[in-house]
Amino acid sequence: MIKWKEEYAIGVEHIDKQHRKLFEIAGHAYEVMSDKLSVDKYDRIVAILNELKDYTVYHFNSEEEYMQSIGYKRFLSHKVEHNDFIEKINSIDLDKIDKEQDKFILELLDFVVSWIDKHILGMDKMIGRNT
Questions:
Q1: Has residue 62 been placed in a domain?
Q2: Which structural domain range is residue 63 located in?
């Protein structure tokens, strides 16, 4: 399971709080993946996917506003990564989810966890250093 660790903190309280929420959403995906009793997880997977879409749009907008407010020099490359994430999430085929639910939730969890880890520890940490 993915859990928040202090090493993910970038030192900007409202962004760290939002990152914790992303870990919480990933935790929901892990719970669905671990549920061996449910045969049909489709609705729960779609709910998590929608929550992830909505929250990342909110979070990315907030983070981008903050970067602009501090005159962050790497804003554009950072925004490209955000846009790529949203594009990837929006391109998910809901029919594929229905046919291979366990495989999809595992792939989604792997994608989100590795992206969060790489993005926060790589890109977002640099924001905190510029404050």
A1: yes
A2: 6-129
**Rounded CA separation 46/94 (Å):** 8
Q: How many distinct structural domains can be found in the chain?
A: 1
Residue 12 inside a domain? The answer is: yes
Residues 123 and 45: their CA atoms lie apart, in Å, by 28
Beta-carbon contacts of 4 under 8 Å, excluding residues fewer than 6 positions away, are 19, 20, 23
User: What are the per-10-residue average pLDDT scores of the chain (131 residues)?
Assistant: 86 95 92 90 94 96 97 95 94 87 87 88 88 61
Report if residue 1 sits inside a domain.
no
Rounded CA-CA distance 116/36 in Å is: 26
